[in-house]
UniProtKB/TrEMBL annotation:
GO molecular function, one term: hydrolase activity
Cofactor(s) required, per the database record: Mg(2+)
Protein known as: GDP-mannose mannosyl hydrolase
PROSITE patterns, per the entry: NUDIX
Record flagged with keyword ATP-binding: no
Organism: Paraburkholderia translucens
Amino acid sequence: MLTRSDLLNVVRLTPLIAIDLIVSDADGRVLLGHRRNRPARGTWFVPGGRIRKHETLDAAFTRIADAELGLMNLTRSAARFEGVFEHHYSDNFAAEPHVSTHYIVLAYALPPTSAAPIGRLDQHSAYLWLAPAELLARADVHENTKAYFR
């Protein structure tokens, strides 16, 4: 694990690689979390997380699904790859001035389920299910999440 200072240097100098999880229910609604942390704090966003150094994509996917959703042992092969996206933010996790954040994001859609995932409230203060048309119409849903539905 990186120290806070090391992570800030990584954010300052390089893009981060992440996985976002597009979770749908049986009615086609999408799970969004209200972000507690920077960047994008205070907006609705799909769950996701950074890939760690030396972590395989499969291991990262399983860890992120557990950490963000409480879904243990979910495999990447159970999801549909939606593509590569770029996310740019003017701020960073540490609120350090003049340090922007750049993510390269691998987006995966989980198959529709009638069972709601168990949300974890350490990253998000609340969870919400919205139809794609609803989330596209809301100003408090982050533009990077809306990009998955355009």
